[in-house]
Specification:
7 helices; alpha/beta
């Protein structure tokens, strides 16, 4: 009798259907069992019901943004959920995103549009237990505002949302 490895389970949270479907298709091709969530709240419920091996989340989503989802994961009472590798993906061009995601406990960060090879490489590294925050994929790094204290209004709003612990109306 041979041991058959169970597929790795991944929750992919993105409010853009084409983005979550694309990442899901790439991971499915690598033998992952993917749960596609259209917002952070749906992803959180799935994580609580059946903790996955990996969370891939967008930053800007309704109901629960990616930073709020990351915070819930890192503050979970369930040790398996708390240690869950989290890959954050975003189309937000902000030089401070890396610092914010890192401080909040994210394990990887990719800039959209995603590239299949880079995305799969980072995901496989995360599953193997490696942090991949150094492997940020940026399409055009010259267009990203950066520097001490430079932060986009969108990232500032997401950070304030997490700090308040509630969604703006």
């Amino acid at each position: 009798m041979t041991d058959v490895a169970l597929p790795k389970r991944c929750v992919i949270a993105d409010d853009v259907r084409s983005s979550r479907a694309k990442v899901g298709k790439w991971l499915d091709g690598c033998g992952f069992d993917c749960v596609l969530a259209e917002n952070g709240l749906e992803a959180w419920e799935s994580i609580q019901n059946h903790p996955p091996d990996l969370l891939v989340t967008d930053l800007e989503m309704p109901l629960l943004c990616g930073l709020e989802l990351l915070e819930k994961v890192r503050q979970s009472d369930n040790g398996r959920i708390r240690k869950l590798p989290v890959l954050v993906m975003t189309s937000l061009l902000d030089g401070q995103t890396f610092n914010v995601v890192s401080r909040m406990g994210g394990d990887g960060l990719l800039q959209k549009p995603l590239d299949r090879e880079t995305t799969l490489s980072v995901i496989l590294d995360l599953i193997a237990g490696k942090k991949c925050l150094e492997q940020i994929s940026v399409a055009d790094s010259d267009s990203i505002p950066c520097g001490e204290g430079v932060i986009s209004p969108t990232l500032r709003r997401l950070i304030k949302t997490v700090a308040r612990g509630k969604r703006p109306r």
